[in-house]
Amino acid sequence: MEKTHVAIVGMGTVGTGVARLLLEHGDRLARHAGRVLWLNKALVRDLSKNRGIDDLPAGILTDNLQEILDNHQISVVAHLIGGIEPARTIMLQLLESGKDVVTANKALLAQHGEELFDRARSLGRTIAFEASVGGGIPIIANITQCFTANQIISLRGILNGTSNFILTQMSEKGLEYDKALEIAQRLGYAEADPAMDVNGSDTAQKLAILAHLAFGVRIDWKEIYRKGLEAFTIEDIRYAEKLGYRIRLLATAQLIDDNLELHVSPTLIRNGRPLAEVRGPYNAITIVGDAVGDMFFHGQGAGQMPTASAVVADMIDTAAGRTEITFRRLQLWSDRQCEIEMIPYSKTIGRYYMRYLVADEPGVLSQITGILGGHRISISSIIQHEPAESSAPNKVPLIIMTHECSESEASRAHVAIRELPSVDSECFKLRVSEG
Ligand code: NAP
Ligand code: HSE
Fold first, then answer.
1. Structure confidence by residue, pLDDT tens digits, 382-410
2. What is the pLDDT of residues 295-305, one digit of tens each?
3. Do 143 and 220 belong together in one domain?
4. CB 243 within 8 A of CB 237
5. Which atom, in ligand 2's list, is nearest to the CA of 160?
6. CA of residue 226 to ligand 2 center, whole Å
């Protein structure tokens, strides 16, 4: 059988998983690819570090990138180092040396997609990136190949495994935030800088990629409105549960009258709806297409083998010649014009959960409801508990769920309520979604 020589650049969590699949399941991969994927080299920084693979053949590991660049047998490279530099320079060097590249690095694509795809096109090379969004879920292939008869109308997803893992550990096992994050890091879910996972940046990068594929928009991920796990506390998780909701870090892309809203925010999702049921490092994405209707994708969004599964599938597609056809047709991050305008976050419409700690005295509730009414915000439910023995004296938590209103009115009302002398400074406002 013919051989395609491949290399791995970066032997961390994902790179090691890719090496395992190539070395331990070569026959299966060869059957699916119609050729042998032959691991020729794997680039590491530290040759003495144990990579946890017992049967790694001698001579494969190298700490010299040039050995891969100069090796003309190697045609496909899995680029599995994170961050921007040296990842960007290395990817350019790989393309320039004639290699087709497979990557899982969404930060790099979200920031430098235009430059990298232009360079790949001009060199007649390809970049495949299924693992960059949704880990093992084949969402990129579905959007770019299976939904091409559709105008996608909306796309909503849980796109960060680390933050979803933390949320479920906190709510279901009562773990502290720091402990849950530490476990996520140990299990290989988190980025080298886990702040990207928990502050919504990683999700925004993935949303920028999906929005580009689904709607053709080219948006700087930093321009996407985003909030992360800092926007609420364990108490909000508990109140949401009492109200019949779960909090999830939700990415939203929605076409409204040919304009697009994009945001990432912790959102209360009603129990029983598919996105509310996503647990641990799992990701999920709902897509609505004008012909296909509703679709739901669910699977492990982070972790060694689920991500390696997507990387190796891309390596097989590249070796078999399928990537080239899609890559040329899609013209991703090219100069193609896109007519869609972005809707500013302040103009989006949503329901809100608001939580305040208020003085337990006459007139406070009417002040708050008066402010909401003044901003034309209708209340859907309101809960005020008796003060707990442990709570601050004469302070009671007040939880308000609103009907739909504009984000700008909700924000103005929230600020006005927070400024009332009878309201504590620590207050929270989260979006609510029915499904
Ligand atoms: P990781 O465990 O930190 O591994 C990165 C590897 O790259 C490390 O082994 C590191 O070497 C190596 N490296 C960094 N700079 C290098 C250089 N200049 N030369 C050679 N090697 C270099 O990261 P990961 O979790 O595997 O993630 C890799 C990429 O996949 C990231 O872009 C990440 O966002 C993405 N991704 C990860 C997951 C996941 O679940 N982990 C899922 C989807 C996508 P050392 O070992 O010497 O430090
Ligand atoms: N750190 C990322 C996550 C890896 O937790 O989702 C998958 O992209």
1. 998 877 665 677 889 999 999 999 999 99
2. 999 999 999 99
3. yes
4. no
5. 6
6. 16
